[in-house]
Design a protein that fits this description.
alpha/beta; eight-stranded mixed beta sheet; eight-stranded parallel beta sheet; 31% helix; 23% strand; binds zinc ion
């Protein structure tokens, strides 16, 4: 359906998520802006008009009938590691046999086995880009970090530019793990990551700089050195923070004015207060903990009730979170973290857009925004998390163009 004009008509529920172009907090996370029998007029890839179908005046455009279906903004999956060379089903089995993830990493597996594969792969690219679109995700963030040397990190970041359908926001994660050749020289590796930032920024390869801050990976002090340089070069900050242990990652995110602090499975009570009082988006990744078989999830209710700007993302990666289905992430957010269905949708649309600084263009269905939409064959939006692990997305539009589903 390639046309400069398109009308989508008769949506049983059109979830606009209309409101200010900023992160939603507290009770705002339940405001979906639903229009019954809703219509959208799209012109040149941009949303021109939104309202009830019987109020749509210009009926000359090609039409897409969404009768009986639910229409959402495309998901903005703001935390993935979608560029990787090989899968890790073997480590999945080791985990089931009782080996802890941090022990697999310490033994040269985990991230380091993906690094090994990444360095050897001549043709890195975003994996399963079509599957993201089929599951209703129209924008992802993707991180480097499976190279840990400048050449491979650059190849990973360049691969993110190659996707025609999916928008990919790129993040340099040079400090994802300590590579084997620097095992006895931590400060030398941090110096090298800082040096490499100049080249990454000179080539305009990444909008964000991220560091995995966790005991056994990188310390807050090491992250501060890297982030200081990244900020001086004009990059924005994301942090892998407090995933398994509380180690000051969330507090560091506030101190560094990061765009987002991600994971937060072990955030302390005092850091919940800090993050809630800040502009940092708290990005929660329940699929990771689910696939690791853990039962301690990020305290989503406490974060929301304290006023934090909560987002949800898949953390799609070949080790700890091999799912890219945001509908399933919504199910997990409801059942494992007691988020309400409406909150999960706002957290993965407008708040996801805030986590990649795209809230002016993405994350809601309002005039002026990019026409990124997904249509679900369900009767009520609550059935999206309710029908767990099944894909009910039947059509996806990217900039007003049908990229998945039948006309
Ligand atoms: Zn991650």
């Amino acid at each position: 359906m390639k046309s400069a004009k398109l009308n989508i008509l008769h949506a049983r529920q059109l979830l606009t998520i209309a409101g200010p172009a900023r992160a939603r907090r507290g009770p705002e996370l339940r405001e979906l802006g639903i229009i019954q029998d809703g219509a959208i007029a799209i012109r040149d890839g941009v949303i021109e008009w939104v309202g009830p179908t019987d109020k749509l005046h210009d009926r000359t455009a090609p039409e897409f009938d969404a009768s009986g279906k639910v229409v959402l903004p495309g998901f903005v999956d703001s935390h993935t590691h979608a560029v990787f060379a090989s899968t890790r089903g073997d480590e999945f089995e080791w985990g089931l046999q009782g080996v802890r993830y941090m022990d697999i990493l310490a033994g040269g597996g985990g991230i380091l086995s993906s690094v090994n594969a990444g360095r050897q792969s001549p043709a890195l690219r975003v994996r399963f880009a079509d599957q993201f679109l089929k599951h209703g995700t129209t924008t992802i963030e993707a991180k480097s970090g499976y190279g840990l040397d400048l050449e491979t990190e650059i190849r990973m970041l360049e691969a993110m530019r190659l996707e025609p359908g999916l928008d990919v926001v790129s993040t340099y994660l040079g400090a994802h793990a300590l590579p084997p050749e620097f095992r006895d020289n931590r400060s030398g590796f941090v110096d090298r990551v800082i040096d490499d930032l100049f080249e990454i920024q000179a080539r305009r390869l990444a909008e964000f700089c991220d560091v995995f801050v966790e005991p056994g990976v990188f310390t807050p002090a090491e992250a501060i050195r890297i982030f200081g340089k990244a900020k001086s070069l004009g990059m924005h900050i994301k942090i892998h923070a407090d995933e398994f242990q509380s180690s000051g990652g969330a507090a560091l995110a506030v101190e560094m004015a990061a765009t987002s602090a991600d994971h937060l499975g072990a955030i302390s009570d005092s850091d919940i207060g800090r993050i809630a009082a800040s502009r940092v988006v708290a990005t929660l990744l329940p699929a990771t903990l689910f696939m690791l078989g853990q039962n301690q999830y990020a305290p989503a209710r406490q974060l929301i009730d304290s006023g934090a700007a909560v987002a949800l993302a898949s953390d799609f990666n070949p080790g700890t979170s091999p799912t890219l289905n945001m509908q399933f992430v919504l199910s997990l957010a409801c059942t494992q973290m007691r988020m309400m269905p409406a909150e999960t949708i706002v957290a993965s649309t407008i708040n996801g857009a805030c986590a990649v600084r795209r809230q002016d263009r993405l994350g809601s269905i309002e005039p002026g925004k990019q026409a990124d939409l997904a249509i679900y064959d369900v009767a009520d939006y609550r059935e999206i998390p309710y029908f767990a692990a099944v894909n009910f997305c039947v059509a996806t539009f990217k900039r007003g163009e049908l990229v998945w589903g039948a006309k």
